[in-house]
Amino acid sequence: MAMASVAALRLVVLLAAAVPLLPPPAASLAVTSTYVRPTARATLSVLHDGDGRTPQQVHISAVGSDKMRVTWITDDDAPATVEYGTVSGEYPFSAAGNTTTYSYVLYHSGNIHDVVIGPLKPSTTYFYRCSNDTSRELSFRTPPASLPFKFVVVGDLGQTGWTASTLRHVAADVYDMLLLPGDLSYADFYQPRWDTFGRLVEPLASARPWMVTEGNHEVERIPVIHPRPFTAYDARWRMPHDAGASPSGSNLYYSFDVAGGAVHVVMLGSYAGYAAGSAQHRWLRRDLAGVDRAKTAFVVALVHAPWYNSNRAHRGEGDAMRAAMEELLYGARVDAVFAGHVHAYERFARVYGGGEDACGPVHVTVGDGGNREGLATRYVDPQPAASAFREASFGHGRLEVVNATHALWTWRRNDDDEAVVADEVWITSLASNPACNKKYSISLY
């Protein structure tokens, strides 16, 4: 991989019938947590312990309702093949894919293999191996085809000791899919960090689908020297932008359905064009217009730079995108919007147009996965009325869509090496709210 050259660069009880009968939660008072984080932890560097043909950095992502994309890297030439089956050691199915590489200044990547396998059965464990390698058997579990459905949501991961703590907490949880609203490796131009990040997350990312969107740390554009942005991100983390009923044509934004169409997830690109008339704006309008809320219980969106933020860090950086796109999300009755970028946690009430609105989405910032830049500890005072809970800590969130009317959002703080529930709220589907479930239309033009 030409390392000499690169060195030069430097309660949830699932009673579906009972949950709708729960009384609505009492209005919560705004809370700014006074919790003080323990000291910082060092950046990690996970080395490769195999030979040049040994698969490494394996991760998977969902493609449609019954397929999975398997991506991995080998230092040397190896076949882009995946063998798989439902019994350990037995691989009656196989598929072949593509191999690509990329260069970034003096860095040259390993061989990046990409194979789509399927059709797969829902809620089933599959055993697989990559590049005909007999030394490593991996496994993943496919998501369920109906509710309940459990997401983990975490942003701005990086690869520090706090990242490792977050990943341990996620691994101890029971979930179906991980959503990441940008800032993955914090490579920041030094490409070997993409490799160490891939090795760090492999135990989780090879076992459950990871669906990601880009953050500012994925741009990696150097004027004149390397003017093309997102080179490593696009090569290493290909998402299903060309699949489903609403292909976007760009790896920087896309959408997909889970749980048999009960949940629609929209992954937006903060660093792709988003103004009215842009390709992303036109695609989002078409995508949301195609969602039938009589069949789709929940719609959630992810974006990197938050549209609502009372932290002093990155104030206003999401405002232009909010001005361009918020009306579309509001018209489609999007239930929740998750963001990263700000290295802290914050949950807002339902908001729209800069203020509280009972038919707007719940906005949550979860840019607190464990990055090396540290936490954003300074908030605006006094706390805005729409800001329900905020805390400058590392952690991760969990969204459990229990049934067609209710989802439970929980945020778990990294309290040293223990995941502590610090914030929790029930989210009721706007499609089930008579006051919000009015006829609306989103023009395709």
From TrEMBL:
It catalyses: a phosphate monoester + H2O = an alcohol + phosphate. Residues 1-18 form the signal peptide. Its EC number is 3.1.3.2. Residues 360-423 form the Purple acid phosphatase C-terminal domain. Residues 55-142 form the Purple acid phosphatase N-terminal domain. Belongs to the metallophosphoesterase superfamily. Purple acid phosphatase family. It is an enzyme of class 3 (hydrolase). It holds the Pfam family Metallophos_C. Residues 149-345 form the Calcineurin-like phosphoesterase domain. This is Purple acid phosphatase. Gene3D superfamilies: 3.60.21.10, Purple acid phosphatase-like, N-terminal. SUPFAM superfamilies: Metallo-dependent phosphatases (SSF56300), Purple acid phosphatase, N-terminal domain (SSF49363). GO terms for molecular function: acid phosphatase activity; metal ion binding. Keywords: Glycoprotein, Hydrolase, Signal.
